[in-house]
Prior knowledge:
239 residues; mainly alpha
Amino acid sequence: MKTRFGKWRLGYAWVLLEPALHIMVLVAIFSLIRDSFYPGIPTPLFMLAGITPFLYFTHCFQKGLAAVESNRGLFNYRQLRPFDAVFTRVLLEFAIYLATLITLIGALAWFGISTEFNNFLTLVVVNILFFCFCLGLSLALCVVGVKFPELAKFSSSLIRPLYFISGIFFSLEQIPREYHVYLVWNPLLHVIELTREGLFANYQGMFGSLSYLSGVSITMLCFGLLCYRANWRDLVRSQ
């Protein structure tokens, strides 16, 4: 946590400030377009349920690429392996993501911005699958980050398009159906759709697929573990 936030002037406050700033910008933009962005759900809550999963994914992507190089000195201890560095980073980001989501929902409710809660079990299942997906992705990326270090320079460019196609500031039902065939391949879109479905009783998310998210998450986790298993000795030896 000190490594993650210690270099910033406001320190741990950035846990809440980063998503809060995103939400304020999005709310300001879409409040100019219409009074209520989604019927029955306050716009800040709608945006919060999209931006927090996306930030978790973004941080796992970036930290996964840098996990080995950032912790190379620790691998002099025989009991520590690159897997430990990746798993710890993903777990820390997951804890930050959940704490941020819960805290900001509570803060908004304090100011009277709330809506009826829907399904806690859906949220649990979706977040377990999301954690598995991000862990598998980060394990694969830690191998890529060592073998192709130049890729880290383009990480922001690779992630930026996802900001606009992952449902952060729209629901899939608001998009014309002819575009669904392209958008539904994005697992992050399903995470956000199902998160909103679990959080908000008024959300009529009909396009988030738990079975698709399950298949993609398990496949990504297995792929990441296989990539790591095949290359972990090279990761430790690389200089």
